[in-house]
Amino acid sequence: MKYWRVPLDVDEIQVTRGIVHIVEERCKGCGYCIAYCPRDVLEMSSKYNVKGYHPPVVKKPEACVNCHYCETICPDFAIYSVEAPPQEGDDGKHSASC
Amino acid sequence: MDKLKARSDHPLDALLRTDRIPHIWCSGCGIGTVFASCLVAMQTSGIDLNKTAMVSGIGCSGRGAGYIKLDSYHTTHGRAIPFATGMKLANPELNVVVFSGDGDLFAIGGNHFIHAARRNVELTVICVNNLNYGMTGGQAAATTPCMAKTPTTPLGNPETPFNLPLLAYASGASYVARWTILHTRDLTKSIEEALTRRGFSFIEVLAPCPTGYGRRNKEKPLDSLRLYQERTVIKNGADPSDVILDYQQGITLGKFIDHERPTFLDSYDKTCRINF
Amino acid sequence: MNAAVLTGEHFMTGDVACAEGALAAGCRFFGGYPITPATEIAERMADRLPCVGGIYIQMEDEIASMAAVLGASCAGVKSMTATSGPGFSLMMENLGLGLVTETPCVVVNVQRAGPSTGLPTLGAQGDMMQARWGSHGHYEIIALAPASPQEMFYHTIMAFNLSETYRLPVLVMADEVTGHLSEKVVIPEPGAIKLKNRPKAKGRKDRFKPFQAGPNGVAPMAIAGEGYGIHVTGLTHDERGYPVMTEGAQEEMMHRIVAKIRDNLDDIIQTESYRMDDAEIAIISYGVSSRSSLAAVDEAREQGIKAGLLRLITVWPFPEQLVNKLADRVRALVTVEINLGQIHLEVQRSAAGKVPVHLVGHTGGTVISPDTIVEKLREIRSTHG
Description:
The structure holds three protein chains of three kinds.
Chain A: E1 18-22, H1 32-36, E2 42-44, E3 56-58, H2 69-73, E4 79-83
Antiparallel strand pairs in A: 1-4, 2-3
Chain B: H1 2-9, H2 31-45, E1 52-56, E2 71-74, H3 80-90, E3 95-101, H4 102-108, H5 110-119, E4 124-129, E5 132-133, E6 139-140, H6 164-171, E7 175-180, H7 184-196, E8 201-206, H8 210-216, H9 221-230, E9 232-234, E10 245-246, E11 250-258, H10 264-271
Parallel strand pairs in B: 1-2, 1-3, 3-4, 4-8, 7-8, 9-11
Antiparallel strand pairs in B: 5-6, 7-11, 10-11
Helix pairs in contact in B: 2-7, 4-5, 5-6
Chain C: E1 8-13, H1 14-24, E2 29-32, H2 39-48, E3 55-58, H3 62-74, E4 79-83, H4 85-100, E5 105-113, E6 119-123, H5 128-133, E7 142-144, H6 149-166, E8 169-175, H7 176-180, E9 182-187, E10 231-233, H8 247-262, H9 265-268, E11 271-274, E12 281-286, H10 287-302, E13 307-312, E14 314-316, H11 320-329, E15 332-337, H12 343-351, E16 357-361, H13 370-384
Parallel strand pairs in C: 2-3, 2-4, 4-5, 5-8, 7-8, 12-13, 12-15, 15-16
Antiparallel strand pairs in C: 1-9, 5-6, 7-14, 11-13
Helix pairs in contact in C: 1-2, 1-6, 3-4, 10-13, 11-12
């Protein structure tokens, strides 16, 4: 993401990281979560679930910011995200170039 | 085992009858999204969920009551509002939410809608507007756009649809909003507000019906969402007579009315039960 | 002092007595719509309910009235509506919802002559089969037939008690004449009125099954807001209340809601016999027609005809066994009702060809005169000896 102006407090901003969970057997493959993920985290998987739909799969796990949009747009209660625990060596701070 | 664990971890599972999920709604149908927003709003609004009941009518959206793990009543076609009225008046402690569709609430149930709004009965009415009768196969409804193709309007719909927020406002509703399933945050916030407002609250939510409406009008689920993204404009506080719903000219979204006035029970107590 | 029970002797119409019966029975919600000749019930309720903490709401039509009554009952309040023919027709769909969701309530039909708008101000008993079969699908129903303002009072209480005991809408099938007739009505002390309440849900809330039959076949009822989180639907459902779209579930559910009535007929059915001990011709009648019949029995006896009267207090369920046994000991049966043969069909069926069954009836607009009945009795005696 590029900012037109680098915020002065950019070093202090903590961007939350999220982990996406997909409840595959509930998915009906509408693709809403994939199309409207602001960070382009998901893609359609090639596999079929028990109902014959293609559930989404996480393609860029590190990009998820735990915004929950996939969770709220999903008509099937089939996807949600939780906040990722801070990783070692990761203080949660991001540089403006990320 | 993993699957079972995953089920029980969805943040809405506590409010869902998970033994009935997956629900009956088709792939790409927007009802589930409106329903999820409603559940989230119920959780975050702070209302007592043990004192909350959902009432639905008939149709795809009418199945909503069947999936919520609270007291829930799936009534007859068009009659969710009068049923809910009886429930609310009999026990004012209850939060009564009507979750139903456009055909149910505005064609067969239209008379009940305007009267409940006029009386300002304290109900939260959420109308999933998918522009047609989905359950029976996509026939024209009181909300179907002019010239749209449905099995009962094969040459195009010759009729003009209702403007639901205008109808609600004119009838006396004290809270009126319109959103789409793409605007999940605004929608959830709006339902949350409606749940805590006194009086008759109405929220219209545009949702795709890919199987019934979309198929015949060359509108895939993601096309509908694109329309919701590109053709909508949010105008909070707009005059309800200006809030158009026209895929060519645009769709006005927002919270249009938020105005408290005495509820049915306020007036009844003041007028009739003064000596009780 | 109980404001809901007007203990004492009164001179009041059947409609007013009906409203007083409802109040004495604990009714605290009335959803209605004005219609002749039942309007006075709504008017009385509008006046009296707020004084006892209840609510009267005039709905936009009878469809909404019936829906509101069911909603109020599901929220735990005894509720009622009152109407006449055209309104009764509009209530039929939600009556079915009440039956299948097992929601207690009372529906009063002050019958007027139909079909359609008919004779709004004049009585009839033409909705008796509609009371039995008016909503779609198969079901059992309870219908009472008051014959006086005093009975309008008591039958309304009885209707509430039956509806609460067996968890279903109960019908009070009155008629314009009884509704508008003014007579002495004695209202007892509140303590002398026996009231019944629906079986209450008990036990663990997460395991409660809202449609699991109790000992008498009736499921205990959870009320909205009690924390049971029940689901109630007009769709065919299982014991949990969940929709199940199979013939098996339909069979199970239907048998249960039919059995709770059929297995308790002795408790539900009430009749009265008048001069039946040595009767050779038995009149079977109900409501206002049973009053004409009573007078006719006395007049016939004067003329040497051994007539008697079986008066139906519960018309539905029909006392089939009783009428069948009666057919063994009389020479003829006569149905007296203000229609062209509705309960008559039940009498014929129950008599099973053992004795001839005659009808005294007309299409409505006035009561049946005792003379017309006596004339029929004379004719029967000359034919059958």
